[in-house]
Write a structure and sequence with these properties.
The protein has 301 residues and is of the alpha+beta class. Helices cover 59% and strands 14% of the residues. The protein has a 4-stranded mixed beta sheet. α1 packs across α4 (131-203), α4 runs antiparallel to α6 and α6 runs antiparallel to α7 (253-272). The protein is rod-shaped, with a radius of gyration of 37 Å.
């Protein structure tokens, strides 16, 4: 099912300036766009500095979503990511090394902190300085985005279920129209057969046997009877309606797809068993509804 979801979570812990708390200055944003797909396909688009989050985000999305093609986009918001920060572990190690060297070469000489500025790679980007925090935030952001996407899909799913329920009910109504029409078709066929047989036999001097004609009519009635197809159709429709009810077992998509294939077969058989124009038109309407249902079920997990 299609859907959009986003999650925006703070990455840097709140800092305080005196007694006044300041809001976090860095956020991680995950946006998800899902489209219909029979498999679980995930693509993560992240800027180069966030590329290390692509794998964990993809794994988390796959764990939360069973089907669909999902495009995920990662972005970092806030001024903190663009400001360079001192690589504290590297600076501490470098200063300790310089202090040790000074104690060995010039005992009693103090090494100025400014000496660190001449060393390479003392500063890193905000992203590089907070990789651990970003990895933890990525999980929270993905979860928030997936939950947001699910809420949108649930709303769409409710509308979809209403539409499919109405179409399934219409299939039953159309099948009933065929059941009502068939006795009329059989009666008309019987009248034509009697009249045509009597006409042919009388023209040739033959003996007319209504019993024999009635036997042929019974055979025709059995041949064109669609009661079994109607019963099976009603069973399939009932199972489809049950699968669309709130609280029904999931996933329901594959089950509904199979049931609707069977619905299509029953409709085709009903059409093949009738030569009546009115019934043929009803069958066309039923096939149209079944085709729309097959399209809609592709949106269901």
């Amino acid at each position: 099912m299609t859907g959009f979801g986003s999650g925006r979570v703070p990455v840097l812990a709140e800092s305080t300036e005196g007694a006044i708390p300041r809001a976090p200055s860095g956020y991680l944003v995950v946006e998800l766009r899902a489209t219909n797909h029979k498999y679980n396909e995930v693509r993560v688009n992240a800027p180069r500095e966030l590329a290390f989050l692509a794998g964990p985000c993809e794994a988390r999305i796959r764990a939360r979503m069973e089907r669909g093609a999902v495009d995920a986009r990662l972005t970092a918001e806030g001024e903190s990511w663009s400001r360079p920060e001192i690589d504290l572990p590297r600076a501490r190690a470098a200063y300790a090394a310089l202090t040790g060297l000074a104690a060995e070469l010039s005992p009693g000489v103090r090494v100025p902190v400014e000496a660190l500025l001449s060393l390479p790679d003392m500063f890193v980007s905000g992203v590089a300085a907070h990789k651990t925090e970003l990895e933890a935030a990525a999980v929270r952001a993905v979860d928030a985005a997936v939950s947001d996407l699910f809420r949108m899909q649930e709303t769409e799913g409710e509308s979809l279920a209403l539409d499919m329920t109405a179409r399934l009910s219409r299939l039953l109504s159309l099948a009933e129209k065929i059941a009502v029409r068939q006795p009329e078709v059989l009666a008309a066929r019987r009248a034509r057969l009697l009249a045509r047989t009597r006409e042919l036999l009388e023209g040739r001097g033959g003996e007319f046997s209504q019993v024999r004609v009635e036997q042929e009519i019974v055979l025709l009635a059995e041949k064109y009877d669609t009661a079994e197809e109607k019963t099976r159709l009603a069973s399939h429709v009932a199972q489809c309606l049950a699968a669309l009810l709130p609280g029904a077992p999931v996933p329901a998509g594959k089950r509904l797809d199979f049931l609707l294939q069977e619905v299509g077969r029953e409709i085709t058989t009903m059409g093949a068993k009738s030569e009546d124009a009115e019934i043929a038109q009803v069958v066309v309407e039923m096939k149209t509804e079944a085709a729309k249902l097959r399209e809609q079920v592709q949106n269901i997990v």
